[in-house]
Amino acid sequence: MRFALRRLYGKRKEMSEIEKSNVNIVQAPDGIEGPGFFVTMLDKAVGLGRKNSLWPLPFATSCCGIEFMATAAATYDLGRFGAERLSFSPRQADLLMVMGTISKKMIPVVRQVYQQMAEPRWVLAMGACACSGGIFDTYSVLQGIDKIIPVDVYIPGCPPRPEQVIDGIIQIQKLAESETTRRRNQPEYKALMEKYGME
Ligand code: SF4
Predict the structure, then answer these.
(1) Distance 140 CA to ligand 1 centre (A)
(2) 62 ligand 1 Cβ < 6 A
(3) Whole domain around residue 175: which residue ranges?
(4) Tally of domains in the chain
(5) How big, in percent rounded to 5, are the helix, strand and coil portions of the chain?
(6) Atom of ligand 1 nearest to the CA of 127
(7) pTM of the complete model
(8) What distance in Å separates the CA atoms of residue 97 and residue 93, rounded to the nearest whole number?
(9) More confident: 154 or 11
């Protein structure tokens, strides 16, 4: 990565200026390094790519969605985490972010969106409503999206601050980085999907 940056910016002097700035230089995964070569495990290389190129699908139904917009805008700049490419097509997304109150009428829609996403996929429940129904303990509101789809990370709050959303994204990044490429074929994962009535 440093080598690539050096080529990009040309001079060593300019590179040292970048190193002094707050530009985040991604660390190479563990591996064996020598003159002219670097060897690592496929899982680690794939995990590095997945971690730093999440494509979130913002499923925003109410006020938490506005807080997410603030997180993606200039001040908090979600793009620093490689997640600025928001996808409104489930087939080109790997992180489903559910933000807001989910009414029971919306259950088939949320499930369909989740099932249309390709593996590997992660789910982040943002805010009290998505996590547990929040203050809307009524006949028409789903009391937490984990009743219909598996959730990887929960962000509490009503609404959560952008810093909390960023922390949630970082937790998803840790999962994406450490997940083996074989996890989705394991019996535990298949059993989890069966529990939700999915393949
Ligand atoms: S958790 Fe609070 S801010 Fe978020 S959607 Fe529910 S009521 Fe709105």
Answers:
(1) 16
(2) yes
(3) 47-195
(4) 1
(5) 50, 15, 40
(6) 1
(7) 0.83
(8) 10
(9) 154
